[in-house]
Amino acid sequence: MIIEDVVDSSGPARLLPQPALIWMFPLTVHHILRRMQSAHRAKEVVRPLDADTGECGERELHEVVERAGRLANALRRLFMRPG
After folding, report:
1. pLDDT at 6
2. How many domains does the chain have?
3. Is residue 15 part of a domain?
């Protein structure tokens, strides 16, 4: 988030980062998924299965995060690196 700081009434305003909202670590998919899992573990994810019929499938968020973790580990074993 950026806040505006006015130096004085005659000078131009300058934009400064708000320190309380600056991330102290890189924001990666790993961190987003862990936060989603801890904050919204029991929520359901709905996904379309068939566009023609409108059929949808549901899974709990923790299942989706666990599956994404298994995929990431499989890719890592195949020598893929984050980034």
Report:
1. 46
2. 1
3. no
